[in-house]
């Protein structure tokens, strides 16, 4: 039947339906005679005319009232119509609608014609289902199904009792369905929302061995249940019933133009006012009701603000009265409001006073002058009868009463009462956008009438739906972001369901290790216990099962130390006999393993058995020799399928005299197979293809690329109409585009710098139901919002193309690495091995990551990644970023000596003088940092057998300035350079750099982060072949010793402190007294002795001599002493002479990684005798 404001105002039905008035208040209603399962609708324009619909809404009802709008994909409200009068457009309903009545409401039509329609529906009669369906076979699932509808938001639907008092109940609570245990108050699941809408809802509970499937309408949730629920005993039965259908007409305020105007005067209203209504909304604010007081007495506003109800009476620019009641009224539940004014008393109550009430006694009458306005005001109110300084109301209202009389909203709909605009009458169109929640990973969902919002705080994820992880997937990834060793959260599957885990990343070695701890990694001693034949140990890991499993699988190598220390305690026995001990390892509780650390799986051997060096050749483990002496079997477990160690059973610990100790180390994994998985596309027509990408509701794509091309498609996947694509659209732009049925949406990211620079660049794209985002390197994220009520399912069906497109146009030429879709890495290398035009792997990482190597560290390429070679740097660490510092106390020294592997004549005086002039060191670069409170103090002294020297000291005057002394001519006094920087003995960190080239010297001092280049001067350079003692003045200064800190000392490429502390066994160093490694060279350290560690080298002497090549023409033996010794010049000279007479032994270049001098220029011209001494 056709309907409109006046159902009789309808045009002729000839050729189809067409109302006389074409507006959005018309509809066509179809009575199917009985409840029908409607599966599709088809529309056509009016025959022989220019009248057709271009879009429309569908409503369904069982009673002809309380309509419910049908939505595709839970979001799309409108259906596209026709483009002409003759073609038929059919829409299959994604979820069949079950109803007796169907209503079609026109939204838009041919602008050159009128509303015109021919309509056909498809479906079949709906058959009722049994209330209970019981299968008595325990192996088959048990199912309980029912349908219900209600106006109440709380109550018990069903209780099912089984044997032993076990069972469950289905309850409504605030419009949600709860599944609870009947035996104890345990909530098992919550599903659905707004179920008190007086529409039929389908509920099913299906038992499957260890879990239940709870279904409400079309949403299903899997619920884990206790083991005792493995069987229930609910008898099968049929239930007949009838439902009363109370008529409650609701009205929906849909948007900014919505309002409802009703007459406010009744016969009994002259003495006051009595108003009532119910509302439900998600908005915190909005106007509910307004009216004018009689005789220009002011205006009354009843409104929501911060989800509380407020009543305000306003006149002449000021508030005469203000009341408030209720709280959290934006929860989507129905709330009742009552306003009464009688006998000078005004009362406002929410939810029958359960939600609160407020009262006042105004000095003026509160009554309605003429009209009531609900929800808002007319857009064009020339009479100024309605004023709204607040937000408009978006939500539903019902049960509107005035002076205890119901207001007939059906009459309003038929234009017989009041006035309205942009309302949906006889329905409540509220939608719960948070049920089911689109917020992932525990994000908290909140909503307004039109949108939802996800609060991702404390979840570890970001994005509009908390989809993308804020953490990296491995320690390897953290390292390549420039991080050093420490604790980090690792998200092994990115945006997948596995939660982040806290691990320790050890980046001190060339390989980066991920360390996962358990509850007992210490060496634990066992003693015999009476009556105990076996000792059982369980290990609980800080990471969860799924975290461990994925971390192990995506690592290149994993290992775990397993050791057994024993005295008369056997371990495994022979391979032919039953083992005394074993362990469990692998996924879950693990499988029994009968081999030990260092051996092969299944061998029932220890490491010594594999190597053939056990203490008893008849056994394959040292402990199986059963001796009274302590021995051990230790080694690494490296078979990933057997890791981690879950438990340990030790069987031979009960005999008298048996003693043992065990240790299971933490699980350590290195190498991220996903991070370096790469492919090189050498042609624009080459590509890789993979199965269809499934990212219907949310999709994230991340990868790294490098190229020299200016454009190309990284990735593409097509559907019938939908698609998703990421491409390099120009040398500075990356474009992310897709279509889910609303038309193409693009997100463009532009870089200031060229992207075709053959360096790695990172792309991260995400698409969800709220927005699309694109990230490029560390640039700010670019986003595009998705339509609020549009399509949001991405439906793809073609293959996924990587590096190209299906049409082979605009292919990508370059490298793609670490490609992940929704946290799953695509194995590009394996696919590239069998694909022409694509090569597995992609070398050349230093161009991108080389800048991470600091302080003259050198980037060295590896197949998968890089590492920093710190041999030419005074620093250490994974990026050559850690200073090497020593806190000195009186009595400490370090000597460092270098010598060529070949020698000239020991009688240096026999050499011609021309040789000496050619052997002059042309220049040096010296740098160090220090902090001390001592003045005067000698920081650095360099001298040769020919009485030339360099000294760096803090002088003894009150200004505590820095002094540099150079003496390169034995016949002249030393040339002295004094800085203008004062108070250097103040306990603060200062850095000094000295650079000399031939006769020119420059010195700079850093104080308080300010660099002072205080002078440059020229030297008279001449070397005399005569020997001499240490300068007496400097010898007296050295005898005072040194108390303070020296850090990152470097002479050209030589780092004596680093060699002494880190490579003492392979470096020509002599250490006297305590040498304490410290972080005193750190700018954040407060004093020279802060946070000393226990690295002490005391009184040791190494006589290994090393060949040193300077960039000059003199070869010398250098003798370096880190001062702190109270020494005399005579003693120093004797020490110097001793080293002259030592026998020189050649050492291979590779012995120490810190000193590769073969790169120095002019090395072939250098000779060996004439050692210099360096006193630091």
UniProtKB/TrEMBL annotation:
Q: Which domain of life is it from?
A: Eukaryota
Q: List the GO terms this entry assigns under cellular component, sorted alphabetically.
A: membrane
Kindly indicate whether the keyword Transmembrane belongs to this entry: yes
What range(s) does the Laminin G domain occupy?
249-428, 677-842, 899-1080
Q: Does the keyword Iron apply?
A: no
Bias (Polar residues) ranges: 1157-1169
Q: Which residues form the F5/8 type C domain?
A: 1-124
Which InterPro entries does this UniProt record tie to the protein?
A: ConA-like_dom_sf, EGF, FA58C, Fibrinogen-like_C, Fibrinogen_a/b/g_C_dom, Galactose-bd-like_sf, Laminin_G, Neurexin-related_CASP
The segment(s) forming the Fibrinogen C-terminal domain are: 466-518
| Keyword terms | Disulfide bond, EGF-like domain, Membrane, Repeat, Signal, Transmembrane, Transmembrane helix
The protein's matches in Gene3D superfamilies, at most eight in alphabetical order, are given as: 2.60.120.1000, 2.60.120.200, Galactose-binding domain-like (2.60.120.260), Laminin (2.10.25.10)
Please list every transmembrane segment annotated in the UniProt record, as residue ranges.
1108-1133
Q: How does it sit in the membrane?
A: Single-pass type I membrane protein
Q: Which residue numbers delimit the EGF-like domain?
A: 430-467, 843-881
Say where the protein is mainly found. membrane
- Which cysteine residues pair off into disulfide bonds? 815-842
Q: Please name the PANTHER family in this protein's record.
A: CONTACTIN-ASSOCIATED PROTEIN-LIKE 4, PIKACHURIN-LIKE PROTEIN
Q: Which family does it belong to?
A: Belongs to the neurexin family.
Q: What is this protein called?
A: Contactin associated protein like 3
Q: What is the lineage of its organism?
A: Eukaryota, Metazoa, Chordata, Craniata, Vertebrata
């Amino acid at each position: 039947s056709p309907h409109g404001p006046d159902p009789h105002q309808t045009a002729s039905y000839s050729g189809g339906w067409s109302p006389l008035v074409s507006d959005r208040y018309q509809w066509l209603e179809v009575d199917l005679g009985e409840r029908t399962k409607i599966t599709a609708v088809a529309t056509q324009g009016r025959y022989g005319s220019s009248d057709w619909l271009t879009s429309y809404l569908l409503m369904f009802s069982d009673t002809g009232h309380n309509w419910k709008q049908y939505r595709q994909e839970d979001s799309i409200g409108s259906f596209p119509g026709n483009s002409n009068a003759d073609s038929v457009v059919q829409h299959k309903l994604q979820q069949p609608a079950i109803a007796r009545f169907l209503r079609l409401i026109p939204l838009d039509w041919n602008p050159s014609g009128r509303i015109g329609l021919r309509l056909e529906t498809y479906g079949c009669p709906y058959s009722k289902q049994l209330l209970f369906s019981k299968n008595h076979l325990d192996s088959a699932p048990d199912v309980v199904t029912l349908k219900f509808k209600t106006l109440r938001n709380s109550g018990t639907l069903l209780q099912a009792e089984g044997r032993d008092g076990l069972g469950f109940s289905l309850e409504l609570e605030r419009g949600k369905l709860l599944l609870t245990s009947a035996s104890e108050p345990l909530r098992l699941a919550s599903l659905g929302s707004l179920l008190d809408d007086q529409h039929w809802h389908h509920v099913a509970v299906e038992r499957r061995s260890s879990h239940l499937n709870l279904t409400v309408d079309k949403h299903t949730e899997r619920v884990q249940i206790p083991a005792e629920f493995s069987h229930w005993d609910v008898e099968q039965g049929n239930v007949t019933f009838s439902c009363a259908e109370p008529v409650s007409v609701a009205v929906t305020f849909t948007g900014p133009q919505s309002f409802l105007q009703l007459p406010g005067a009744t016969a009994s209203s002259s003495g006051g006012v009595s108003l009532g209504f119910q509302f439900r909304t998600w908005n915190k604010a909005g106007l509910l009701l307004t009216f004018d007081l009689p005789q220009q007495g002011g205006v009354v506003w009843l409104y929501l603000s911060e989800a509380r109800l407020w009543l305000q009476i306003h006149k002449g620019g000021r508030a005469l009265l203000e009341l408030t009641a209720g709280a959290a009224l934006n929860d989507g539940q129905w709330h009742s409001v009552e306003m009464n004014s009688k006998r000078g008393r005004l009362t406002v109550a929410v939810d029958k006073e359960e939600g609160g009430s407020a009262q006042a006694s105004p000095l003026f009458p509160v009554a309605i002058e003429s009209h009531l306005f609900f929800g808002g005001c007319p857009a064009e109110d020339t009479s100024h009868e309605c004023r709204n300084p607040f937000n408009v109301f978006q939500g539903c209202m019902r049960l509107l009463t005035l002076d205890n009389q119901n207001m007939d909203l059906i009459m309003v709909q038929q234009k017989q009462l009041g006035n309205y605009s942009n309302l949906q009458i006889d329905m409540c169109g509220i939608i719960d956008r948070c049920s089911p929640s689109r917020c992932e990973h525990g994000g908290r969902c909140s909503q307004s009438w039109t949108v939802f919002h996800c609060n991702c705080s404390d979840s570890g994820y970001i994005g509009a739906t908390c989809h993308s992880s804020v953490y990296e997937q491995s320690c390897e990834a953290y390292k390549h972001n420039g991080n050093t060793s420490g604790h980090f959260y690792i998200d092994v599957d990115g945006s997948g369901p596995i939660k982040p885990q806290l691990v320790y990343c050890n980046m001190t070695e060339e390989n980066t290790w991920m360390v996962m701890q358990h509850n007992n990694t210490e060496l634990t001693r066992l003693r015999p216990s009476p009556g105990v034949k076996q000792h059982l140990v369980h290990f609980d890991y800080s990471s969860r099962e799924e975290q461990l499993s994925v971390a192990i699988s995506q690592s290149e190598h994993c290992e775990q130390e397993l050791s057994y220390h024993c005295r008369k305690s056997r371990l495994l026995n022979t391979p032919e006999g039953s083992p005394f001990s074993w362990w469990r390892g692998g996924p879950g509780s693990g499988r029994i393993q009968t081999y030990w650390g260092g051996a092969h799986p299944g061998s029932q051997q220890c490491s010594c058995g594999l190597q053939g060096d056990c203490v008893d050749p008849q056994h394959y483990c040292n402990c199986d020799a059963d001796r009274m002496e302590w021995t051990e079997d230790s080694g690494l477990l490296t078979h990933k399928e057997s890791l981690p160690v879950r438990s340990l059973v030790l069987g031979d610990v009960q005999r008298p005299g048996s003693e043992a100790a065990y240790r299971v180390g933490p699980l350590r994994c290195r190498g991220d197979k996903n991070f370096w998985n790469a492919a090189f596309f050498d042609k624009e027509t080459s590509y890789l293809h993979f199965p269809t990408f499934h990212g219907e509701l949310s999709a994230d794509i991340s990868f790294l690329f490098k190229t020299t091309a200016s454009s190309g498609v990284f990735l593409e996947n097509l559907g019938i109409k939908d698609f998703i694509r990421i491409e390099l659209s120009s040398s500075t732009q990356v474009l992310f585009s897709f279509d889910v049925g609303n038309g193409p949406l693009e997100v463009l990211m532009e870089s200031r710098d060229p992207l075709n620079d053959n360096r790695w660049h990172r792309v991260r794209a995400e698409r969800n139901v709220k927005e699309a985002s694109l990230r490029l390197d560390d640039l700010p994220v670019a986003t595009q919002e998705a339509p609020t009520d549009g399509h949001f399912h991405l439906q793809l069906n073609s293959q996924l193309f990587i590096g190209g497109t299906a049409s082979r146009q605009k292919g990508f030429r370059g490298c793609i690495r670490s490609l992940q879709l929704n946290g799953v890495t695509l194995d590009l290398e394996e696919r590239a091995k069998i694909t022409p035009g694509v090569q597995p792997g992609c070398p050349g990482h230093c161009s991108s990551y080389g800048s991470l190597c600091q302080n003259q560290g050198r980037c060295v390429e590896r197949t998968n990644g890089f590492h920093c070679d710190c041999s030419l740097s005074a620093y250490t660490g994974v990026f050559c970023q850690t200073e090497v510092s020593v806190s000195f106390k009186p009595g400490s020294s370090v000597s460092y000596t270098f010598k060529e592997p070949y020698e000239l004549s020991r009688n240096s005086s026999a050499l011609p003088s021309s040789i000496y002039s050619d052997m002059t060191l042309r220049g040096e670069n010296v740098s160090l940092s220090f902090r001390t409170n001592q003045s005067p103090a000698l920081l650095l002294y360099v001298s040769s057998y020919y009485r030339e020297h360099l000294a760096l000291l803090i002088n003894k005057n009150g200004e505590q300035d820095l002094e540099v002394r150079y003496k390169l001519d034995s016949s002249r006094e030393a040339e002295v350079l004094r800085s203008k920087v004062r108070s250097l003995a103040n306990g603060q960190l200062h850095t000094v750099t000295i650079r000399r080239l031939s006769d020119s010297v420059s010195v700079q001092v850093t104080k308080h982060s300010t660099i002072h280049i205080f002078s440059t001067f020229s030297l008279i350079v001449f070397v005399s072949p005569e020997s001499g003692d240490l300068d007496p003045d400097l010898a007296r200064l050295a005898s005072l010793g040194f108390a303070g800190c020296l850090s990152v000392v470097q002479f050209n490429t030589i780092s004596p402190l680093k060699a002494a502390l880190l490579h003492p066994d392979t470096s020509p160093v002599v250490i006297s007294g305590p040498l304490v490694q410290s972080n005193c060279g750190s700018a954040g350290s407060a004093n020279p002795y802060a946070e000393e560690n226990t690295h002490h080298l005391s009184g040791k002497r190494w006589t290994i001599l090393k060949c040193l090549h300077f960039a000059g023409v003199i070869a010398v033996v250098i003798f370096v002493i880190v001062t702190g010794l109270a020494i005399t010049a005579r003693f120093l000279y004797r020490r110097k002479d001793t080293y002259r007479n030592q026998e020189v032994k050649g050492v291979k270049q590779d012995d120490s990684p810190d000193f590769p001098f073969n790169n120095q220029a002019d090395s072939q011209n250098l000779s060996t005798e004439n050692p210099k001494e360096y006193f630091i």
